[in-house]
């Protein structure tokens, strides 16, 4: 009885994706890749013929007949009792697709010209955000093997806690510290997928921490992003000298940071 129960639990936890298209080759292929990634994928030629109420994400062809008027995406979600994000897809330019998504009231869009890495990264992020718990997660929970673990290094407690909370709300498992003290033990405990380090830290600066960590990475190469309010040119130069995988100005806002982290995570996974 144990095995059937485990199988049932596994299927209940699978994320369900609806791909609505009329035989699009790219979306057919994407559906197969997503199935290999562990998603339950349902493909249909019409959204009205699917059970959208139980979906975690809907990807629908932007030129589908259902989208024939302003706000059609909103109306269709109401009719289908769907709470999942509804994203449009097309091979049109990103600017055109963004404008169409806004016109129809869709929750977002993906361009099939982006390539599978970026498409899957968007899917992962969107599904995780929909199911993200608002309860802060501690490092002890991170040891349970969750993916997308982020370590934040910032000596300013308020700024560190705000960033950690925002990342947790987006579905990441997050831990943080104020500098080099205790960092090796925290890395061992969390096993982070990405490290985000402030540059201006007391004692040992973030770029120096980056150099030290990179010098000792052998089996597991952890991407490191340096963040700061420093001017772009100075931050870029310090990141390059430290061997960082990316740099980010705090003034640019969380959405851009999330996009950067997703890009780094997609490079790790695929």
Word description of this protein:
With 270 residues, the protein is an alpha/beta fold. The protein folds into 2 domains: 2-130, Response regulator (Rossmann fold); 139-269, Rossmann fold (3-Layer(aba) Sandwich). It has 11 helices and 10 strands. The protein has a 5-stranded parallel β-sheet, with helices on both faces. A 5-stranded parallel β-sheet has the order 7-6-8-9-10, with helices on both faces. Strand 8 (194-198), helix 9 (206-216) and strand 9 form a beta-alpha-beta unit. Helix 9 runs parallel beside helix 10. The two termini are 35 Å apart. The model is unreliable at 1-13 and 131-146 (pLDDT under 50).
Question: What is this entry, summarized?
Answer:
With 270 residues, the protein is an alpha/beta fold. It contains eleven helices and ten strands. The two termini are 35 Å apart.
